[in-house]
Amino acid sequence: MLFRRCCSGSSSRRAAAAPPSPSLPPSLPLSPPTQRSGIRCFATFRHNICTNDWIAFPGVERRKRPQQMRPEVGMDKSKIPQWSANCPFCKGNEGQLPAKLLTLRASDHDPTCAPKDDFELYVLPNKFPVVAPSNCIADESLQYPFAASIMSMECNELVDCLNTARARGKLLLEATGFHEVVVDHPSHNLPIGHTTPVYWEMLFKAFRDRGLLLTTSPLIQSLLCFKNVGMFGGASMVHPHSQIIGLPIVPNQQLKLTDTAREYFQTNGRCLFCDYIKLELKEEVRIVELDSQFIAVVPFAAHIPYQILLLPLRHNYQFLSIDDDTLRALGRILHRVFQRINRALGDVDYNLVLRTAHLHRTRNQVYNPSCYYHWHVEIFPRLDSWPVAGFEFGSGIMCNAHMPEDDAKKLIEAGCD
Ligand SMILES: [Zn+2]
Ligand SMILES: [Zn+2]
């Protein structure tokens, strides 16, 4: 059995650098208030002082969200209809939806698009958010109908409170932020094999354009863009959709990733990810796709079978700075990668996660992440439920029964157009 170290590295330094455990307040706020000084509390983050993690506890609305996936457990995906009367995202059922925040059309991105192939992607506020804008911090320019402007003083106080929450020993925070859903295709059932380069280009354009707007809020410290597909992918809705979340904190996983990259930069004077790309180019055996702008590999220490790591070849820390031409190239390589996944594994469930640098708001940071971080996309095909059992929970070490070189070979041999 081999242990392989992934490029996100060890968290030992992070643990050592963690602030001392705060002393407990006189009484824990066991029942979060639903109303406080006119501020509506949608949900909360609780700080786990033993692991230094923030855990999200959704508000009442999210706990009541519909589970479209459940009745379709075990259903052959090819039998999922193109349209469902019960789906709020299917054509004709949109009456209950809130106002769209962004709309993109395929024909605007691909002039050769035939009218029958044209489709619309749109972004909405998530009706069942993990985090939501409070009346006290939301900004009218973000187009939330329930938002209200506030004096900047109040906003700054809240941001300061979030930034120093750990140090002050706060165990409970209002889960403020933005949570949006991207309805990325009109078909209720969109097999992997039916996605196109324009589909991926439009999805990532929505991530960029909404991300740019959301991060103008001083509250937002990190941006999370992802897509869950199928029951094993943890999706609650069948209809193809993705999510954009602006968080008022930097999650531990993101801190670990950036800390590891910063330490590597401080020691070697180079970007960890740029060096990792060189290693993969030298060894060749795990490269699934390569063009003049991007590389997609099964990582040397993949967490799960057929995991894909996709990186821009040119160093760039912040996805939000991507231009339209590079978005087009990203759409093309994602299409080829998903064609290979489809041919090798079939119409599998999966998760796709965009990992971009968190926002550089801390004034006293020694190195700006523009030097050492390198944005990337990870795809996790979900052949089975997440393989986390006693060994993984007990050790924190994932156990992958597939060798990455074998998985890469299968994806390479599967081919694409
Ligand atoms: Zn639908
Ligand atoms: Zn780099």
UniProtKB/TrEMBL annotation:
GO molecular function, one term: zinc ion binding
Active site (UniProt): H241
Sequence ranges of Pro residues compositional bias: 19-32
Residues of the Galactose-1-phosphate uridyl transferase C-terminal domain: 260-401
Domain of life: Eukaryota
Keywords of the record: Carbohydrate metabolism, Metal-binding, Nucleotidyltransferase, Transferase, Zinc
Protein name: Uncharacterized protein
Cofactor note: Binds 1 zinc ion per subunit.
Organism: Vitrella brassicaformis (strain CCMP3155)
